[in-house]
Amino acid sequence: MKFIIVGMGNFGAYLAARLTDKGHEVIGVDSDMAKIEAVKEKVTHSINLDATDRQAVKNLPIKDTDIVLIAIGEDMGASIMSTAVFKELGAKRIISRAITHTHETVIKAIGVDEIIHPEEETAERLSKKLEMKGVIDSFDISDGYNIVEVNTPKEFEGKSIRETDIRNKYQVNILTIIKVRNRPNLFGNMQERQKVLGVVNGDTMIEPGDILVLFGDIKDIQKILDLNEDA
């Protein structure tokens, strides 16, 4: 896919580098030359350009780009203006970072396809990890439903998914299992490696040290976490 990411601050630069590493074509844009210099070896293309300037933005390959992401952090005015410029120039899909409620209201009115709150989303995931013992990572879906990675309770070890009866007992589904194993690296030192099993079924066995990827209401998932407390 082809991306234009506007704003090479910490969030935008990291995202641009990650997408480039995954084989996508990424154009990183910023009006600060120092930020462009910092990312030029990490992204496909880096351009020093004022994204609020319609004439300058017209020179970008907007029609050939799948997603434009406005990742500007602190300058709400620049974010709004950039979003409006790309919308006017016919970007296929625009994702914009919102800083405040007012900012979100304005860019919604412009007509962006998706609004993100990276700081809030990271804080929410971290809060669950800190608050709920046994949670490794979590992703909010909606209305209290989450996808959560948890350490396997002792009660489930050595059983198949069917034998745990997790769906009937807890109204929670196991989406997949992450196998964690220690393997020697190139230097002979033991290093933790993870392998995702993919689609699991009722006969899939759960082993000590596994990480379960669960889907369900957070209140029901908490009951499974409590099993380790009771052990």
Automatic annotation (TrEMBL):
Superkingdom of the organism of origin: Bacteria
Protein name: Potassium transporter
Residue ranges of every copy of the RCK N-terminal domain listed in the record: 1-116
One GO BP annotation of this record: potassium ion transport
SUPFAM superfamilies reported in the protein's UniProt record: NAD(P)-binding Rossmann-fold domains (SSF51735), TrkA C-terminal domain-like (SSF116726)
GO MF annotations, alphabetized: monoatomic cation transmembrane transporter activity
Pfam families: TrkA_C, TrkA_N
RCK C-terminal domain location: 134-230
